[in-house]
Amino acid sequence: MTLPHPTTPPPESRSPSPRPKDRRRSQQRSQRKSYLAPWLQASLARCAGRIGIGSLLLLLLAAALFVIADHSPGDAAMILQMDPAQSPAAIEAQARRLGLEDGPMTRYRDWLFSVAKGDGGWSALYGRPAGPLIWHRAENTLVLAGLSLFGAWCLAFLSASAAPLARRRPEFRILDRLLTLASALLLSTPSLILGMVLAAWALQGGSWPVGGSGDPELSWAARWPHLFLPSLTLVAATWPWLHEHLRNALIQAQGSLQLLAARGRGLSGLRLFARHLLPATAATVFPLLGWSAGGLLSGTVVVETLFSWPGLGTLLVDATLGRDLHVIASLTLLSGGLVVVANAVANLAHEILDPRLRPVPTREPVPAQEQSRHIPAREIAG
Amino acid sequence: MNPASARSPQKASSGRSRRPTRFSPLGRWRRLWARGGLIGAVTLLISAHAGALAAGFLAPNSPQQQFRDYPLASPTPWYLEFSDSGWGIQIVSPLAEDLADSSLRSPGSESMLPEATPLLWLEPAPPAGFLPGGTFFLHPGTPIRLLSAPPGSGPLFWLGSDALGRDLFSRLLFGARISLFSGLLAASLAVSIGCLLGLIAGLGSPTPYGSRKAQWLDRCVQATIDLTLTVPWLFLLLALRATLPLDLPAEHAFFYLVLVLGLASWAPMALIARAQGRELRASLHFEAARGLGVSPFRRLAFHALPALLPAALTQLTVLIPRCILAEVVLSFLGLGMPEVVPSWGHLLAEIHGASDPLSHPWLLAPCFALCLLILSYHRLADSIRSGAPAGNPLP
Fold first, then answer.
1. How much is the pLDDT for B36?
2. What's residue A240's pLDDT?
3. How many angstroms separate the CA atoms of B225 and B244, rounded?
């Protein structure tokens, strides 16, 4: 870090004016006709850039996994050797499929090609391509996580709106206090313990199914009791976090000048809440949407293991126990990709829906002749 | 002056706190209550860590010793007895036959009734180990124990026993040694990695005058931070764990775990440190130090790091419960410490595997311990984050 003193003039090469080539390109771009507003184009480009850079980084992480795994003792073939039912020939065939004789970079390249084809590598544990395995499990996880995410957000919106309500009506104050206390208590109860106690309670009562996702032939609506306990645990793990953030955002928005102005114009009640207070919390809500998707995916690992839900989390734990590197790398790619897309889309939605983020429209410069024709009001009056 | 500024959020909240109609069940004692919460949390944390360190001295039994005659025994009843010679703790130890078939016992047989026996203080402990050799974290005991049951009576279970007849209290204490300290060490590792990388990146982040080399370092660090924040945390942890061998030797497992946990959770701290570094680089005192010719290392160590201390402390208290929980989850899944070493994750896995834990409520003691611990850490983090001495009414 040998930084030159700031008073020294910047070198010529890094002057802020664009190079002639760049200038030409930007002129071409502005001449092209487009139906989208420039700010919308910019945010779409930013969204695409985020997804692109995110997926590149994830591929780098996968490469790092291959290299580290190559340096640590033990591999999938060693795990298979512990199984007496496997013949040496079968194990050797598996090892050849995984390319265990080659270097880590060759294996990584093969895995990449396989991912591009949609196979997602070869699972040594299950003895078949990892892709169909993962897609089948991903549906289960997405149903569970999506339902819990929806439930937690609805609940958080309802519970957090008790705070602005309590400010106007004292009788809601005790409700707000109780909800905040409940969220603080739930925040320090790990989903592991909550799920365990719920499972034990359900086993004792025998009222709810505790394991598995039911008969896969049936529709999700027919086997909703299987969804109940896992999604309840996930909602209880996500809600307090959302509640705290939303509550703080609502309280802050309530003290803002724009709400004061709206109230000054005589607005109140539901219209003030839905059209003025809720949109003012956009800066909290949209980033939180992306982050809650990531947090929920983390949470599914524990909950799926507790309720033996056949999803990505149980697959990941099994793959880790069996050192099934291709499945682990594909799962990391998929889960990271989901979070990258969720974050990028949440950002895009924020930029589209929040007019405060758009650039201030600059007035077109008035042509010279028009300027001269303009007569000031003072002269007319005089 | 301006009516709008008089209604700004800070003013409004401070005005509200003086209003007498504010909901407060404790009235003027509210401040003391809030401070009491922090004092309670800190006391609990200190005693938990001290108890974990002194587990060999405090635990009445070895964590691996199986009292086969006492499966699922409820906590041993005890009472204090005062006599002329002093005072002592008496326990009413359950008889083994008593547990086996209490319904079949004939009502007339007085001799079967358990008798109260006094506990012994500071008795020498039998050398019982679950691992030969081992480091401090695995070392099973001390030459003496604080309290132990006399040889003739039954075993002493402060918190009951599990399905194999092992003392739950001893297992909880020894498990705390693994779980609490792996969380503490992993969080310290994560915070130090995050501080160093984030500061170096932030101080070298691109400016019109910055050097190219520092910019590249900044970009690399930023990409790594993005990557670590992108993948869901538990997925990253499991992927990192998957690159290690499955059966870690017990002596090394602890340090491998700390390493994996630390490597998975340094990103938020680095993000904060980077932002602070950028701010710091523009500050006057840092500029003055550079102008006076202070070396880059000295600037980093004596000018930048102390400025980062409050943020680092907050991040540490936030990260420790997360790391403890992550260790518990890993051990629960069978990917953490080996089975011979009691960790809280193994205790939770045993509860999950038990047939009916709710009818033996003492089995849930590790759950309560974990929740209380995390609650205390959250309370500590809250009061550090709000920056105020605890007891200040929160806005």
1. 78
2. 95
3. 22
Query: Would you give the distance in Å from CA B173 to the centre of its chain?
Result: 12
Residue B145 backbone dihedrals phi, psi, to 5 degrees: -120, 150
In the predicted model, what is the mean pLDDT of residues A296-300? 90
Three-state secondary structure call for residue B145: strand
Share of chain B above pLDDT 70, in %: 76
**Rounded (5°) CA angle A133-A135-A139:** 120
Per the CB < 8 A criterion, the answer to whether B131 and B247 are in contact is no
Q: Are B299 and B286 in contact (CB under 8 A)?
A: yes
3-state class (DSSP) for residue B102: coil
Q: How far apart are CA B324 and CA B374, in angstroms?
A: 9
Cα distances from B338 to residues A179, B223, B261, in angstroms, run 40, 35, 16
Q: Does A181 touch chain B (CB under 8 A)?
A: no
Q: Which of residues 271-300 of A touch B (CB under 8 A)?
A: 294-295, 297-299
State how far the Cα of A99 lies from the Cα of A81, in Å rounded to an integer: 17
B244 — contact with chain A (CB < 8 Å)? yes
Buried b (16+ CB within 10 A) or exposed e, A60-77: ebbbbbbeebbeeeebbb
Exposed, middle or buried, A310 (CB in 10 Å: 0-12/13-18/19+)? middle
Give the mean model confidence (pLDDT) for residues A208-215: 79
Test A65 with B242 for CB contact under 8 angstroms: yes
Both tokens of A168, joined, read 């106007």
Task: Return the higher-pLDDT residue of A370 and A238.
Answer: A238
Residues 11 to 50 of B: which have CB under 8 A from any A CB? 12-13, 21, 23
Nearest to B235 among A197, A199, A297 (CB): A297
Residue A67 confidence (pLDDT) above 60: yes
What pLDDT sits at residue B141? 62
Main-chain phi, psi angles of B164, to 5 degrees: -95, 5
Name the nearest CA neighbour of B205 among B180, B222, B183.
Answer: B222
CA distance A251 to A167: 9
| Alpha carbon distances (Å) from A371 to A374, A375, A379, B336 | 5, 9, 15, 77
Q: pLDDT for A68-89, tens place per residue?
A: 888 877 677 777 777 777 788 8
Please, are residues A180 and A247 in contact by the beta-carbon 8 Å criterion? yes
Q: Which of A53, A317, A323 sits opposite B333 (nearest CB)?
A: A317
Integer Cα distance of B61 and B157 in angstroms: 8
Q: Band the pLDDT of B4: cuts 50, 70, 90.
A: very low
pTM (2 d.p.):
0.82
- Of A134, A141, A143, the C-alpha closest to A333 is A134
Residue A317 CB contacts under 8 Å (≥ 6 apart), including other chains: A301, A305, B238, B333, B335
**Per-residue pLDDT at A380 exceeds 80:** no
Cβ within 8 Å, pair B207-A316:
no
Predicted local confidence at residue B367, as pLDDT: 94
Is B334 near chain A, with CB under 8 Å?
yes
On whether any CB of chain A is under 8 Å from the CB of B378, the answer is yes
Q: With an 8 Å Cβ cutoff, are A317 and B352 in contact? A: no
Report residue B234 as tokens.
């538990």
Structure-block tokens of residue B129: 């180990």
Q: Please give the single-letter amino acid code of residue A222.
A: A
Asked if pLDDT for residue A17 goes beyond 60, the answer is: no
Classify the complex by whether its ipTM is higher than 0.90, answering yes or no: no
